[in-house]
């Protein structure tokens, strides 16, 4: 019997804001398999190593390690997992893309519209 869940990308979500993390999981869950939802950068690194998700969706500012610091640790360990960084500081998007972030999502509610930046070198997932 075919399991539809086997065809879904496995996503690790990291955000220290409980409401936002729950909302992201709620939005992604119908399409993706959520392998974990964590609240710190250290937990993100540990979960990424243990669970090997297809994609990571991470907040920038979190306790213990920022999303960017977690990404640097994962890249230094040889991980190539696509990494989507969400932040209200979209003005730094190019620096994060240069660091190895796959896409940056600007979540600043003060801006009239959201922005999304993606690396032209990103690999297709799945």
Task: Describe this structure as you would to a colleague.
By secondary structure, this protein is of the alpha/beta class. The chain has one domain (7-118): Rossmann fold (3-Layer(aba) Sandwich), CATH 3.40.50.2300. It is 31% helix and 23% strand. A six-stranded mixed sheet has the order 2-1-3-4-5-6, with helices on both faces. It is globular. The two termini are 21 Å apart.
Describe the secondary-structure layout.
Elements: E1 10-14, H1 18-28, E2 33-38, H2 41-51, E3 55-59, H3 67-76, E4 83-87, H4 93-99, E5 103-106, E6 115-118
CATH superfamily: Response regulator
How many strands, what sense, and barrel or not for the largest sheet?
6 strands, mixed
Instruction: Tally the structural domains.
Output: 1
- Gyration radius, in Å: 14 Å
Order of helices and strands: EHEHEHEHEE
Beta content? 15-25%
Shape: globular
Q: Supply the CATH architecture.
A: 3-Layer(aba) Sandwich
């Amino acid at each position: 019997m075919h399991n539809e869940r086997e065809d879904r990308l496995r996503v690790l979500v990291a955000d220290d804001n409980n409401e936002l993390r729950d909302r992201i999981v709620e939005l992604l869950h119908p399409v993706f398999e959520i392998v974990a939802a964590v609240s710190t950068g250290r937990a993100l690194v540990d979960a990424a190593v243990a669970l090997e998700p297809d994609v990571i969706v991470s907040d920038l500012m979190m306790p213990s390690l920022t999303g960017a610091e977690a990404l640097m640790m994962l890249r230094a360990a040889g991980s190539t997992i696509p990494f989507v960084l969400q932040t209200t500081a979209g003005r730094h998007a190019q620096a994060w893309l240069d660091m190895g972030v796959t896409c940056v999502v600007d979540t600043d509610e003060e801006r009239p519209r959201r922005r999304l930046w993606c690396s032209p070198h990103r690999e297709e997932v799945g």
